[in-house]
Every structure is written in structure tokens, then in C-alpha cells.
């Protein structure tokens, strides 16, 4: 079963992702998988799954718009519901809403019903590394060496399928992603109406967020740094900048499951 996984290669750490995807596929003994850099709608159309790397989300969305990729990317995530994973800037692009965006706005792709707070931990010089428990990697998994560089966090879980969040529009420097309708049975199967919190920074994640609940004031929960909603996965940190391929391997298994689901449904 040939499977093609793309990494959006407009800007940022795309090369590192491709390398770790290859390493993970070897670890998982996945034969016949192809990993490609995506710069055009034609390349995107070949993909069964897509990684949006870290970098600078403002630049990435500008280049995506100029490359006529924004609409195909939105369709990939929200209409075809193929698996996507955004790291850092990629997570920002996958959010339905983002704070502290550049004046004049910034285009988002959307797909995760969350609002992110950009540059949550401060500037480049305030970058840090932290060993983080990631329960989704399995019971007893060793802490993951997470790298945070001008990283966003998920500061709010938004109500599902609200489309444009009108309450957010009035907030200065907050942007929202345009809404889209999923189509077809595979799309339905991959649609999840809740955002699952997979990791928080200050303590091991054991929390499933409920819709519409503002989690930011409750500091006890810690900062949300990994979330999943259906086929959309996002991390605040950069696994591609470590040699650790465990998250890539975990995500490739998600892609494999999604491809099998689509096949079963004849799509
Ligand atoms: N390392 C990163 O990807 C940083 C993201 C960056 N702060 C942005 O807003 O795009």
C-alpha cells in the first residue's frame, strides 16, 4: 500500500521533519512509504497526510497564499479530512483562531477548534528545552525532549463547528480561519467534535478538555502544548529538532489508520 506523506516546504524546519519521518518509517518497518516536500497544489494532491513545520507562521501563510496553496490546504484539512500535524508555527496555522497576530491579519488554515496564543513564552532568547511526559506515546514511555522556540500554546478550546468565531473578530490582532464543510463518509468518520488535550507543560496530561471551556485561567492544568481533534494534531514544540522519532512514528501510525479507513469506505 503506497502512502505519500508531505511536509509543507515553504519556510521553516521542513527538511528536519522529512529526515525524522524517514527514520520513524524505518523504525516502524513501513515499506513503500514516500515522503515529499510540498510547494504546489499538485504536490499536495498526492499526499495522504501532511506535516506543517515550525518556522514563522506569518511568512508561511503569505507564501502559501502566493503559491495558491491556502485554499487547497483548507480543503485538505477540512473537506477531505486527511491527517495533518502542525508543529509550532504549523499549530498556529491549524488553529481556528490566533492571538497576537501581525497587524493587517494573518491567514489561518484552521481545523482545530482552539485559540492559540502566539509567542506565549516570549522571544527567541527565551527558548527552552524540557523533558515532557507524553502519555499518548504509551504507558511508561520515557519523557520526550521537547524544544520550545517562540512557541504558541492553546489558550482556549472553542465550541465545535461554529465556523467564524464572531466574538473573536472584534478583538484586535486576533484572526480566525474561514469555515468549510466536510464531505463524504470518510470525512464524517474523521470528524471529531471535541479537542483532546494530549499534553500540558507543567504536569503530565490526564485531562480531556470540554468544549467551550476556557482553560487558560486555571493554571493548575498547565499550558496546553499538544492537542488532537479527529485527524488534526498539533504540538507547540519541535520534535523534528531532536533525534527522537517517537512522535513521528506515532503519527505515521495515525496516518496508516486513516488511509485504511478511507480504503474501506472506498474513497
Ligand atoms: N518556532 C516556531 O515555529 C515559532 C512560531 C512563531 N512564533 C510564529 O508565530 O509563527
UniProtKB/TrEMBL annotation:
Keywords: Glutamine amidotransferase, Hydrolase, Lyase
GO terms assigned for molecular function: glutaminase activity; lyase activity
Catalytic activity, EC: 3.5.1.2
Catalytic activity reported: L-glutamine + H2O = L-glutamate + NH4(+)
Entry-linked PROSITE patterns: GATASE_TYPE_1, PDXT_SNO_1, PDXT_SNO_2
PANTHER family (UniProt xref): PYRIDOXAL 5'-PHOSPHATE SYNTHASE SUBUNIT SNO, PYRIDOXAL 5'-PHOSPHATE SYNTHASE SUBUNIT SNO1-RELATED
GO aspect biological process, one term: pyridoxine metabolic process
Active-site residue numbers: 88, 238, 240
Gene3D superfamilies found in the cross-reference section: 3.40.50.880
Name recorded for this polypeptide: glutaminase
Family: Belongs to the glutaminase PdxT/SNO family.
Any Gene Ontology CC annotation: cytosol
Binding site for L-glutamine: 55-57, 118, 149-150
Amino acid at each position: 500500500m503506497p502512502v505519500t506523506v508531505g511536509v509543507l516546504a515553504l519556510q521553516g524546519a521542513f527538511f528536519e521533519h522529512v529526515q525524522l519521518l524517514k527514520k520513524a518509517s524505518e523504525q516502524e518497518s513501513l515499506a513503500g512509504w514516500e515522503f515529499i516536500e510540498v510547494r504546489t497544489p499538485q504536490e499536495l494532491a498526492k499526499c495522504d497526510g501532511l506535516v506543517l513545520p515550525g518556522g514563522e507562521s506569518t511568512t508561511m501563510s503569505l507564501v502559501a497564499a502566493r503559491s495558491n496553496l491556502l485554499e487547497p490546504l483548507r480543503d485538505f484539512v477540512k473537506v477531505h479530512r486527511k491527517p495533518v500535524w502542525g508543529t509550532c508555527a504549523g499549530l498556529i496555522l491549524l488553529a481556528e483562531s490566533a492571538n497576537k497576530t501581525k497587524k493587517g491579519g494573518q491567514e489561518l488554515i484552521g481545523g482545530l477548534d482552539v485559540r492559540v496564543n502566539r509567542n506565549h513564552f516570549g522571544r527567541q532568547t527565551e527558548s527552552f528545552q524540557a523533558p515532557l511526559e507524553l502519555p499518548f506515546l504509551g504507558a511508561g514511555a520515557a519523557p520526550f525532549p521537547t524544544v520550545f522556540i517562540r512557541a504558541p500554546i492553546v489558550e482556549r478550546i472553542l465550541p465545535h463547528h461554529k465556523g467564524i468565531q464572531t466574538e473573536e473578530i472584534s478583538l484586535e490582532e486576533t484572526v480566525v480561519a474561514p469555515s468549510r464543510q466536510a464531505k463524504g463518509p470518510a470525512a464524517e468518520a474523521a470528524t471529531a467534535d471535541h479537542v483532546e488535550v494530549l499534553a500540558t507543560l507543567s504536569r503530565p496530561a490526564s485531562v480531556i478538555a470540554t468544549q467551550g471551556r476556557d482553560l487558560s485561567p486555571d493554571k493548575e492544568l498547565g499550558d496546553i502544548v499538544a492537542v488532537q481533534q479527529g485527524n488534526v494534531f498539533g504540538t507547540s514544540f519541535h520534535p523534528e529538532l531532536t533525534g527522537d522519532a517517537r512522535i513521528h512514528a506515532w503519527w505515521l501510525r495515525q496516518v496508516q489508520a486513516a488511509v485504511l479507513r478511507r480504503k474501506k469506505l472506498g474513497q
